[in-house]
Specification:
Elements: H1 8-20, H2 22-30, E1 41-46, E2 51-56, E3 59-60, H3 62-66, H4 71-74, E4 78-83, E5 92-95, H5 96-112, E6 120-124, H6 129-141, E7 144-147, H7 154-164, E8 168-172, E9 175-177, E10 180-182, H8 184-192, E11 200-204, E12 218-220, H9 221-229, E13 241-242, E14 246-252, E15 260-265, H10 266-280, E16 288-291, H11 298-310, E17 314-318, H12 329-337, E18 341-344, H13 346-353, E19 370-374, H14 380-390, E20 396-400, E21 434-437, E22 443-444, E23 449-455, E24 465-466, H15 470-478, E25 485-493, E26 499-504, E27 508-511, E28 514-517, H16 518-526, E29 531-541, E30 545-554, H17 564-575, E31 584-587, H18 601-609, H19 625-632
Helix pairs in contact: 1-2, 5-6, 5-9, 7-8, 10-11, 13-14
Bound molecules: 5'-O-[(S)-butoxy(hydroxy)phosphoryl]adenosine (WT7).
5'-O-[(S)-butoxy(hydroxy)phosphoryl]adenosine (WT7) binds next to α11, β20, β25 and β26.
C-alpha cells in the first residue's frame, strides 16, 4: 500500500484493505516513520471502557519525526514561514536546521526551569513561530503541552491550569491581532491569582509593552535562551516516549459547563495527522501549505505544526486576522509566498465574500492548487465563491470534517483524487468506519438517510481519555451507542453514499468554527448579579454560521436596571472570552420547561430562528403561556 493514494481506484483499494485488515494496513503506514523501537502489537481495543492502544510498546519521539529525520535532505528548506500582523514587518523563514536548533535550545530552557517528562505545560501565546517551537520543545523532552487559544479569558486559563495541574506556563507580553494588542501576560497574571501551584512563567517578548514580572516565578524567554546558547549549541537527546504516552491535552467544550481536556497519544496522533495531511491535501514535496487556523485549536496542532512538519512540508502561518489591514490579507500572503494550499474556515470565506471581489483583483493566486475548509458546514454559496474567485475553477476543494477528539481529518474528499460535492465532506479516509444511528440506537443501512454520526472502529488518533476523568470520556463519547464512538454530529448519507455533516445534535454551538457549550455561556451569564436564570441556543447567522441567542430572566429587584445587557456581555468576556458573547439577549419572565424542570431548547431555538409557525407541541410544558410571552418579545 502506498502512503499517498493517487487515484480513486487506489483510494477504494486502500479503504477496502483498511477495513478487511486494519492492523496490516496501519502497520504499513506506521513503517514510514522513525521509531526508536518497533511496536510489538499494532492494536488492542475496547470501546466499553474505553481502552484503545496503538503500536503497543513502540518507542519514538515525535520531534525526531518532525525535524531530525528531515535534516539530511531538507535541512535548508523552509519548515515554517511566518507572516506578521503588520505588513511593515518582514516575514520570517525558519529552515529545518534552524528549527532543529531553536527547538533543542528551548527544550534545554524548559529543562533548566525544572520541567520534566510527563509534566503539563500550558502555552498561551499569539500566533508567532515561537509557539510552534514551544510545543515541539515540550514534545522533545516528553512534557505534555496544553495550548490555550489566545482569545480565552483569565478565568478560562485558570480552570484549565487547575484541571491539568500545570505548574509551568509559556506566554508572551502581548499578542497582535489585527488592530488590537492583547495583553497576554496581564491576563495570565490574573489567572494565576487562583493558581498558586504555578511555579514558572516563561515570557516571550513580542509587543515590548511593559509587564509585571514576579521575582522567582517569571523569567524572560530571551534571557533563558542566552544562558543556554552561551554554553554553545548542544542538541539535547530527545526523550524516548512510549507510543501511548500523552503528547498533548487540548481543552474543548462539551454539553456541560466544564471544558474537557482531550488527551492525544504520541504515536497514533503522529501517524494519523501525517497520513491525513498527505492524503487529503495530496501534498507534494516543496509545496507551501497555508493554514489560517489558530494553533490554539486542533486544526493548528495537526495542520500547521505536527502533520505538516512530519511530512517534511513547508508550513506558512500568519499572525492576525483575515480583514487586517484590509480584506485582501489572505490573497496578499498567498501571492507573496506562492502558497499552493490554502486551508481556512467557511466563516472566514463568508466574511471575505462580504467585501466583494475588489480585494482579490490584481493578486496573483495562480500558485494555488488545493483549497480546503474546516470547522463547520460550508454553504453552497460560499463553496462556489471560493471555487470561482479564489480557485478560478482550477483548484481542488476539500471539505474536511474532524474534531478535537479525532486528532485528524476523518471525512473529506482527497484533493483531485476522489470526487467533491459542494457542502459534502464526501467520503471517509481509509481506516475510518462510519455508522449512522437512528433514535433507537440502531445502525441505519442503505443510502439517502440521515442519522447520528458514529465511528465503529478505532483509528490511530482517537482521543485516549479526558484528562483526570476517564469516566467522563466514556460517558461523553462511548456510552450513547454500544461499541461506538459518538461524534455529537448529525449526518446525511446521499444516494451515492457521500456524507454531509448537518451540525451538532447536542447542546454545543459552533460559532465561527469555535466550539462553545451552551451551558458554559449560561454559567457565565448567571454569574452576573441580578440574573436569576438563562438559556442559550444557537440560530443561523450569515457570517458566523451560528449566532448565540440568550434568554435571560432577571431577579425582580433588577428588572428595571439600566445597562444589564452590557454587564452580561462583559461577564461572558471576562469568564470565557470575547468570542462567546451572545449576539442577542432577550429578557424574559419565564422559560419553557417540562414538568420535570428541563428547559425545552427546541422551542427556544425555533423562536430564535424566527420560525414562529413551527414551534410544535407545547402541551407538555409546565406553563405553555410563557411561550407566547417569549414570542411577543422576540429580539
Ligand atoms: C465540530 C468539531 C475540526 C477542526 C475545527 C473544529 C464541526 C468540523 C466540519 C465540516 C461540518 C464540521 C462539527 C464537529 N465541523 N469540521 N467540514 N463540516 N462541520 O474542531 O472545535 O473540535 O469542533 O466542528 O460539528 O463536531 P472542534
Amino acid at each position: 500500500m502506498p502512503f499517498q493514494v493517487k487515484t480513486y481506484e487506489e483510494y477504494k483499494e486502500a479503504y477496502a484493505h483498511s477495513v478487511a485488515q486494519p492492523e496490516a494496513f496501519w502497520d504499513d503506514i506506521a513503517s514510514h516513520f522513525q521509531w526508536r523501537k518497533k511496536w510489538d502489537k499494532t492494536l488492542a481495543w475496547t470501546f466499553t471502557e474505553p481502552n484503545v492502544q496503538w503500536f503497543i510498546n513502540g518507542k519514538l519521539n515525535i520531534t525526531e519525526n518532525c525535524i531530525d529525520r528531515h535534516l539530511p535532505l531538507l535541512g535548508n528548506k523552509p519548515a515554517i514561514i511566518w507572516e506578521a500582523n503588520s505588513k511593515e514587518q518582514q516575514h520570517v523563514v525558519i529552515t529545518y536546521s534552524e528549527l532543529y536548533e531553536q527547538v533543542n535550545n528551548f527544550a534545554q530552557v524548559l529543562r533548566n526551569n525544572g520541567i520534566q517528562k510527563g509534566d503539563r505545560v500550558c502555552i498561551y501565546m499569539g500566533m508567532i513561530p515561537q509557539l510552534a517551537v514551544a510545543m515541539l520543545a515540550c514534545a522533545r523532552i516528553g512534557a505534555i503541552h496544553s495550548v490555550i487559544f489566545g482569545g480565552f479569558s483569565a478565568s478560562s486559563i485558570s480552570d484549565r491550569l487547575q484541571d491539568a495541574q500545570a505548574a509551568h506556563i509559556i506566554t508572551c507580553d502581548g499578542a497582535y491581532r489585527g488592530p488590537k494588542d492583547i495583553p497576554l501576560k496581564n491576563i495570565v497574571d490574573e489567572a494565576l491569582v487562583s493558581c498558586p501551584f504555578v511555579k514558572k512563567v516563561i515570557v516571550y517578548q513580542r509587543t515590548n509593552k511593559p509587564v509585571n514580572m514576579v521575582a522567582g516565578r517569571d523569567v524572560w524567554w530571551y534571557d533563558e535562551l542566552q544562558k543556554v546558547t552561551a554554553q554553545g549549541h548542544q542538541p539535547i537527546a530527545a526523550e524516548e516516549m512510549d507510543a501511548e504516552d500523552p503528547l498533548f491535552i487540548l481543552y474543548t467544550s462539551g454539553s456541560t459547563g466544564k471544558p474537557k481536556g482531550v488527551v492525544h497519544s504520541c504515536a497514533g496522533y503522529m501517524v494519523y495527522a501525517t497520513y491525513s495531511f498527505v492524503n487529503v491535501f495530496q501534498y507534494r514535496p516543496g509545496e507551501v501549505h497555508f493554514c489560517t487556523a489558530d494553533i490554539g485549536w486542533i486544526t493548528g496542532h495537526s495542520y500547521i505544526v505536527y502533520g505538516v512538519l512530519c511530512a517534511g512540508g513547508t508550513s506558512l502561518m500568519y499572525e492576525g486576522i483575515p480583514t487586517y489591514p484590509d480584506a485582501g490579507r489572505f490573497w496578499d500572503i498567498v501571492a507573496k509566498h506562492k502558497a499552493n494550499i490554502l486551508y481556512t474556515a467557511p466563516t472566514a470565506i463568508r466574511s471575505l465574500m462580504a467585501y466583494g471581489t475588489a480585494p482579490i483583483e490584481g493578486k496573483d493566486l495562480s500558485s494555488l492548487r488545493v483549497l480546503g475548509t474546516v470547522g463547520e458546514p460550508i454553504n453552497e454559496e460560499a463553496w462556489h465563491w471560493y471555487n470561482e474567485h479564489i480557485g478560478k475553477k482550477n483548484c481542488a476543494i476539500v471539505d474536511t470534517w474532524f474534531q478535537t477528539e479525532t486528532g485528524g481529518i476523518l471525512i473529506s474528499n482527497l484533493a483531485g483524487v476522489t470526487p467533491s460535492k459542494p457542502s459534502y465532506a464526501t467520503l471517509p479516509l481509509p481506516g475510518i468506519q462510519l455508522a449512522l444511528m437512528d433514535e433507537q440506537g440502531k445502525e441505519m443501512t442503505g443510502n439517502n438517510i440521515s442519522g447520528n454520526l458514529c465511528i465503529k472502529f478505532p483509528w490511530p488518533s482517537i482521543l485516549r481519555t479526558t484528562w483526570g476523568d476517564h469516566e467522563r470520556c466514556r460517558l461523553n463519547y462511548f456510552a450513547t451507542y454500544k461499541d461506538m464512538y459518538f461524534t455529537g454530529d448529525g449526518c446525511h448519507r446521499d444516494e451515492q453514499g457521500f456524507y454531509r455533516i448537518t451540525g451538532r445534535v447536542d447542546d454545543v454551538l459552533n460559532v465561527s468554527g469555535h466550539r462553545i457549550g451552551t451551558a458554559e455561556v449560561e454559567n457565565a451569564i448567571n454569574m452576573q448579579e441580578g440574573v436569576l436564570e438563562s438559556a442559550v441556543v444557537g440560530y443561523p447567522h450569515d457570517i458566523k454560521g451560528q449566532g448565540i441567542y440568550a434568554y435571560v430572566i432577571l431577579e425582580q429587584s433588577h428588572e428595571h436596571e439600566q445597562g444589564m445587557q452590557a454587564h452580561i456581555l462583559q461577564n461572558v468576556t471576562r469568564i470565557i472570552g470575547p468570542f462567546a458573547r451572545p449576539d442577542k439577549i432577550q429578557f424574559v419572565k419565564g422559560l419553557p420547561k417540562t414538568r420535570s424542570g428541563k428547559i425545552m431548547r427546541r422551542i427556544l431555538r425555533k423562536i430564535a430562528e424566527g420560525d414562529l409557525a413551527n414551534i410544535g407541541d407545547t402541551s407538555t410544558l409546565l406553563d405553555p403561556g410563557v411561550v407566547d410571552d417569549i414570542k411577543d418579545g422576540k429580539v
